[in-house]
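Re: that chain you flagged

S.,

Sorry for the slow reply, it's been a week of failed gels. I finally had a moment to sit down with the sequence you sent. For the record, here it is as I used it:
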Amino acid sequence: MTDTILAEFSDGIDALELVPGSGGVFEVSFDSDLVFSKARERRFPEDDEILGPLRARL
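Prediction finished late last night. Pasting the structure tokens below so you have them in one place:
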């Protein structure tokens, strides 16, 4: 997914930070706003669940 984000939004993203977690944590945030939480949804995201909100904000 990082490759897709960087390829599509290279002009609009200053930084992309991957933070290792533990206990199965997988969260995606944009400007401190939570876009997706595996703990809340109990599954990994589909690409459009991440790319859609990024497209709307960039």
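What I noticed first: The longest strand covers residues 33-37.

Talk soon,
D.
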